[in-house]
Design brief:
By secondary structure, this protein is α/β, with parallel strands linked by helices. It folds into two domains: 50 residues, no CATH class; 181 residues, Rossmann fold (3-Layer(aba) Sandwich), CATH 3.40.50.2000. Helix content is 45%, strand content 15%. The chain has ten helices and eight strands. The strands form two sheets. The chain has a six-stranded parallel beta sheet with strand order 5-4-3-6-7-8, with helices on both faces. The protein has a two-stranded parallel ribbon with strand order 1-2. Helix 5 links the parallel strand 4 and strand 5. Helix 4 packs parallel to helix 5, helix 4 crosses helix 8 and helix 7 packs across helix 9. The longest helix is centred in the C-terminal third of the chain and has 18 residues. The two termini are 35 Å apart.
Length: 245
């Protein structure tokens, strides 16, 4: 693979983290284009749902994904549990299913937060979106992932995002759309997640501004049309005659 890599003038990677594996060679032009996105209608639908959100007594954090180790649901729960010690009016909704569901439920019980964590099970796409847009913060500490469609969905839903600076989700976020955490050992990571949760819960104006910026960014930069234009530019810059109509 390294030999093929070295012979290329331009290489398109799905994430900067994959690109960095080949950082020893600088002979080629590196382009990062995520391989996930949403169509314009889906973005508009998420925006419409978010505009119907009603005020709630509790701030709702959302985790959505398959319940397997690499998705980081256990980290999300532990970070939430620590934040819960300082914040009474928060709850966590876990949307999805998977082989670790019972393990995660036992973790909630062990941490004494079962009454504040809801497991919805796997939901059909529009029902999942409806549940997501009722939330206030998207908590997604994935340990190994590409950008993940769910991140674009959360942005479209107008949610600020908390993730780790370890995988694809971090590359589409910045300080204006979410909180990106430097991962460390488990305790340090949990502490950082809790701090990020507390920050966003206690600052509603920051939370709302991040959500609005995330929504605008999703509509502008993370549609399939935007991905297609990025790909066409790569070919055009390489001297290939392309028709972008």
């Amino acid at each position: 693979m390294q030999r093929t890599h070295n012979r290329c003038n331009t290489i398109i990677y799905r994430t900067k983290f994959i690109a960095n594996r080949f950082s020893a060679t600088k002979k080629n032009n590196t382009i990062i284009i995520p391989d996930v996105g949403l169509d314009d209608q889906s973005i508009k639908y998420l925006i419409q749902l978010s505009e119907k959100k009603k005020p709630k007594k509790k701030i709702q954090l959302i985790f959505m994904g398959r319940f397997v180790g690499r998705k980081g649901a256990s980290l999300a729960i532990m970070g939430f549990a620590k934040a819960k010690k300082y914040l009474e009016s928060i709850e966590l909704v876990c949307i999805g299913d998977g082989p670790e569901k019972q393990k995660l439920q036992k973790l909630c019980s062990h941490l004494g937060i079962s009454s504040s964590v809801k497991f919805t099970g796997r939901l059909e796409r529009k029902k999942a979106w409806a549940a997501m847009t009722k939330g206030d913060i998207f908590l997604y500490p994935s340990l190994r992932d590409a950008v993940a469609t769910v991140i674009i969905e959360a942005m479209g839903a107008g949610l600020p995002i908390i993730c780790l600076d370890k995988t694809g989700p971090a590359q589409v976020l910045n300080h204006q759309t979410g909180v990106v955490i430097q991962p460390g050992n488990i305790q340090k990571t949990v502490d950082s997640l809790a701090s990020a949760i507390i920050l966003l819960v206690l600052d509603p104006s920051l939370r709302q501004q991040m959500g609005k910026t995330a929504q605008k960014t999703a509509a502008k930069e993370h549609t399939w049309d935007a991905r297609a234009k990025a790909m066409l530019k790569v070919y055009s810059d390489a001297g290939v005659d392309v028709d972008d109509n």
